[in-house]
Amino acid sequence: MLHYLFPTLVYNEPVPRSETVRQQFIDKAMGLYKTLPKSSTWRCETFTTMEHYDMINDPMFAEFFVDVKKHVRLFLKEYNVTKGEINITDSWFNVSQPGDYQEYHNHPNNHLSAVYYVKTSDDCGNLVVRSFEADTDMFLLPIETENYNTFKTFSLRPIEGHLVIFRSNLKHMVEKNISNDARISIAMNFIIKE
Fold first, then answer.
1. Integer-rounded Cα radius of gyration of the chain
2. Model-level pTM?
């Protein structure tokens, strides 16, 4: 008997918005990019509105957050979490210009984290998730071909209109944007309250 233990689940599904709404999100992100401080604790140059803009209470995003919570609820079913109130603790824009990236990090004090891709292009930087085992595996197996049982890291190509959800303790990073255009995403954290 083979037991599949300690799986790492990552949800990746479309959450479509009309072209008009998508353009409103882009305009809002770029307007904030031009007016808000560029300060960040990141070593990279990715711009974030994290501490400078209250996206959660902006009416522009109310319907979007309702839709996202529906997807969070679907993801939680995989963990047998069917009750509890889904609360967004924070949400922010990321604007990654050519050459920008984000180093490995996680989101403490939250249950789930998500990223929604507003604007992407080829080579704008994959989201890379890192296995917990990757930090402790000091004696690697001589694997001939990687598969879902052997990956220590996994890259997800950003697709406009897609939502990616994962546990907040999962280390992740964003590769360097080597395209000629900005990548725009919305990041979110969630706590489930009983």
1. 17
2. 0.94
